[in-house]
Amino acid sequence: MRIVSLLPSATEIVHALGLGYQLVGVSHDCDFPPQVRNLPRVSACAIADPARSSAEVDRWVRERLAAGVPLYELDAAVLRALRPDWILTQDLCAVCAPDYGSVAALAAALPGPPRVLNLEASTLEGVLGTVTAVAAALGVAERGAEVVAGLRARIAAVARAVVQAPHRPRTAVLEWLDPLFCSGHWTPELVTLAGGEEVLGHPGAPSIVKQWDELAGARPEALVIACCGQSAERASQDWERIRQRPEVRDLPAVRARRVQLVDGNAYFNRPGPRLVDSLELLGRFLHPGYFSRREAHGMAVGADHVRSD
To answer: DSSP of the chain, one letter per residue?
Structure first.
């Protein structure tokens, strides 16, 4: 079987299912596990310019969407040469990856044609269902059930660890800083499971623009900055400037130095197996005393992905 993945999360799911060797092409964003970086790239995005500010990225995206111009380009010649049997894509977010409609239209013109699997989970349960769906489509349903069972066990372990915590910190997970975006889709669920109370985002709902006075009024006691597509280091460039705003300086989380910057490209914003890593990270951040040394070691996330402020 020959598989092309247009989603970093789908690429990670394929590897979790033990089918990484069947991947023949990936998107420009696919970077984990590291070996996929050597595969042919079948998509491109002009916004992938590290010199652009967050505000410029947001403006560019809005202008392109308003004009009906695609954010991504698909390389039809490369796809034709790869002769995929399956193409994995999504229709949840027009900003995150090529949309299902454009992928399906191109696939129909390719030899075969390849089958296209649309993934668009907006909840944690939906993400687990995505693993099941990919496994079924690729003929490894039993392995899919094993992977999902392992993920569910880890989710339950976090929920058990924090259930006795006497206080659920008011928490805000931010998915962009300029402009400010609250968390969305599965992330508010992760906060609840990790023993917190998400004060801006709503479970299953998209991430939307918020005003800084709304964040100030929500008075979060813990702040997680997980900007979509950005490393912790890149997000810190915006944070160092924004944290000087009076309403931000006065946030309980900032005053208590309970701010964590996370690689939002690797965690929180990829609806695949590493959402459970994100949950474990949240649990340790919100309730560090409720995880044994052994559990904390087993849930380790590399220091290059997380920065505390």
So the answer is: --EEESSHHHHHHHHHTT-GGGEEEE-TT---SGGGGGSPB-EE-TT--TTS-HHHHHHHHHHHHHTT--S-EE-HHHHHHH--SEEEEESS-TTTS-BHHHHHHHHHTSSSPPEEEEE---SHHHHHHHHHHHHHHTT-HHHHHHHHHHHHHHHHHHHHHHTT-S---EEEEEEEETTEEE--TTHHHHHHHTT-EESS--TTSPP-B--HHHHHHH--SEEEE--TT--HHHHHHHHHHHTTSHHHHTSHHHHTT-EEEE-TTTTTSS-STHHHHHHHHHHHHH-GGGS-HHHHHHT---GGGEEE-
pTM above 0.85, yes or no: yes
pLDDT of residue 308: 66
User: For residue range 128-152, what is the model confidence (pLDDT) as tens digits?
Assistant: 999 999 999 999 999 999 999 999 9
For 188-243, the pLDDT digits (tens) are 999 999 999 999 999 999 999 999 999 999 999 999 999 998 999 999 999 999 99
